[in-house]
Amino acid sequence: MVVRMRHTSGQTRSRRSHHALEATALAVCKNCGAEHRPHHMCLSCGFYKGRVVIDLLAKKKAREARLAEKRAIIRGDEASPVTEEK
Ligand SMILES: [Zn+2]
Question: How far is the CA of 65 from the centre of ligand 1 (A)?
Answer without folding.
Answer: 23
